[in-house]
């Protein structure tokens, strides 16, 4: 049996490594060429179609708020949405808090100090209100005049930045969409004062038969009520 010298083994190993690298580079090049062009407009249409047919939604959420001076606040909990502008945020961290709306009134219950703030939805300024209208009324192309999309190679999600037609408090909105389900897993908003809000959604369930009573904005007993408008509160 012929003897195989060490330097021969090194040459063989180097050659095999070179061949493997060449195959990997070629394969990645072919995959890049075969990847279809990203059609952001089509993705938006599919998102609208998905949410217009949706009756309700349940998801875990993480909310990150950033102020212009780099002050950051983080909160997390569970979100419930129902067609017709109904919304309920149940915060677990950093403290127990519930924000709920039946589409007409918006009530915020702070369990730490037993204080409730209530107001009409139309008069409420809150970073979470855009989420309220995702179900049943979603028409992104009517609300936004320009958009651009990119594909995140790590998550496979499509990130779409949308710019409102009318100038207002919001500079832009960005959504991250799973192209397999057309569900939104991230929603970010940049405001005119340079502050930002970002929401991440996980364990999303849809059309699970939520009860309307879950969105009752009535203040429970024992809370001090601060009514923003003249007709609210007790």
Model description:
The chain is an alpha+beta fold. The protein has a single domain, classed as outer membrane lipoprotein receptor (LolB), chain A (Clam). Helix content is 21%, strand content 40%. It is built from 4 helices and 12 strands; from the N terminus they run ααββββββααββββββ. It has a 12-stranded mixed beta sheet with strand order 7-8-9-10-11-1-2-3-4-5-6-12. The protein is globular, with a radius of gyration of 25 Å.
Q: How are the secondary structure elements laid out?
A:
Elements: H1 6-34, H2 40-52, E1 56-66, E2 72-82, E3 86-93, E4 97-101, E5 105-110, E6 115-120, H3 129-132, H4 140-143, E7 144-151, E8 158-164, E9 170-177, E10 184-191, E11 196-206, E12 224-227
Parallel strand pairs: 6-12
Antiparallel strand pairs: 1-2, 1-11, 2-3, 3-4, 4-5, 5-6, 7-8, 8-9, 9-10, 10-11
> Residue-averaged pLDDT, rounded?
84
Q: What distance separates the N and C termini?
A: 97 Å
CATH class: Mainly Beta
The helix count comes to: 4
What's the SSE pattern?
Answer: HHEEEEEEHHEEEEEE
Index terms:
outer membrane lipoprotein receptor (LolB), chain A; 12-stranded mixed β-sheet; 12 strands; 234 residues; alpha+beta
């Amino acid at each position: 049996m012929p003897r195989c010298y060490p330097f021969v083994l090194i040459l063989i190993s180097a050659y095999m490594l070179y061949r493997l690298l060449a195959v990997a580079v070629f394969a990645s090049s072919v995959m890049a060429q075969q990847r279809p062009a990203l059609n952001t407009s089509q993705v938006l249409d599919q998102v609208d179609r998905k949410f217009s047919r949706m009756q309700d939604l349940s998801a875990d959420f993480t909310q990150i708020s950033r102020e212009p001076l780099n002050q950051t606040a983080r909160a997390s909990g569970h979100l419930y949405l129902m067609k017709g502008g109904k919304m309920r945020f149940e915060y677990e961290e950093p403290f127990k808090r519930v924000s709920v709306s039946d589409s007409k009134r918006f009530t915020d219950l702070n369990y730490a100090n037993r204080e409730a703030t209530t107001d009409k939805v139309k008069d409420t300024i809150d970073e979470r209100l855009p989420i309220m209208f995702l179900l049943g009324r979603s028409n992104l192309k009517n609300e936004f005049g320009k958009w651009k999309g990119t594909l995140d190679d790590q998550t496979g999600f499509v990130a779409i930045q949308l710019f409102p037609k009318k100038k207002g408090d919001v500079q832009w909105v960005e959504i991250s969409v799973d192209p397999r389900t057309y569900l939104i897993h991230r929603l970010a908003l940049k405001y005119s004062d340079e502050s930002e809000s970002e929401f991440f959604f996980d364990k999303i369930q849809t059309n699970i038969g939520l009860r309307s009573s879950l969105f009752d904005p009535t203040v429970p007993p024992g809370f001090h009520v601060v009514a923003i408008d003249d007709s609210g509160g007790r």
